[in-house]
Amino acid sequence: MSEFSLVIKNARITDTTITDIGINNGRIEKIGKLKSGNKNIDANKHFVLSGFVNSHCHLDKSNLLDKMTEDHLGKSLEENRILLKKLKSSYSRADVEKRATNTIERMLSKGITAIRTQVDVDPTAGIIPIKSLLSIKEKYKDRVHIEIAAFPQEGVVDEAKRDLMEKAIELGADVVGGLPLVEEKGNEKKHLEILFELAKQYNKALDIQVDETNDPRLAILPEVLKKTKEENYEGRVTVTHAIALSRMPTEKAKKIIEQMKSLRINVIVTPSANMITRFVEINDLWMRPSNSITRVTELFDNGINIAIGTDNIRDIFYPFGNCSMIRELHMLISATRMTTREYIDGAISMATTNGAKLLGLNYGIEEGKQADIIITDAMSKLDILNSDEIIPCVIKNGNIMSLDENKLQRRGN
Known about the structure:
alpha/beta, eight-stranded parallel sheet, four-stranded mixed sheet, 21% strand
């Protein structure tokens, strides 16, 4: 009987370090020169990472592209929201579960071992999406960690909408999501107040989508920071997008980033979807037809925990996407010019260990860490970004989920 249930031999854990990884009881127990385990995988010098974490997606909306027509494409954000209501009016649990399951299977093939999904809670679809995703979460619990955020796609200020959010949380949603932008003008702060009330009432973390436009005149992020401090919710608030920060004067942005650091705010970026989002006021100085990404390098330099998500996949808001975190990393690095070695390493952490930290998972290729591991089709971190997005091996809780030994043998040298 071997000392380890699984040993990964010849694993590249840095560009210059090749070693063995011994796994027991879902944890990395030892790293070094090891004897064979009960099961063995020869990584053949391929780079090994913690599993990818998709920190922001919308599984319930995914693959709505199959229900769309060509005249639905190329619309503004607000036009897309109107179209969404029409498509959602015919939702059924079978439909949502089928589309979400197809997306999850594709994510698994791309090396994603943990997911936070925003799930719509609103009068149009009711709690059908939440019930669907709770069922899927249970079904896939041994294959992927799924965290569900109750997402008020149509707002939360109305009492009936708040009641739906409470019901979704009581059914089992893990996180309180938010979207101040959808409220009537003047109700954005009330939206935030209700989110914090719900989060504190049910002892949940917050994940709020803010500032999808790059217009700093509409920025709600400063209000989120103010509310976080007032409610003593440091370390439990995540903001997704925060794009307006990129257009603020540098000195103002620096002060906001300092506040974010002191409040331990997490940030999620969704590079591809951020770049494609369109707005109606295309002739306005601030509202350009293309979008942008938040100040990722400045946030990184200040030690703020940044994670990455695919956001929408093959749906109204983003009709593309193949569930690949490598594709998102390529977009992020290219759009924000993260070309130094430090930034490349940091970006890969955003897609792995940073996302895991956000979800409360103990990731890392270190002894004692959770054995959610992928063996890539690459020999270096830079090579990962230039790869064909193939993940030859996925390991979840120390169990082999998928393995293509031919691909691991192909490039080992």
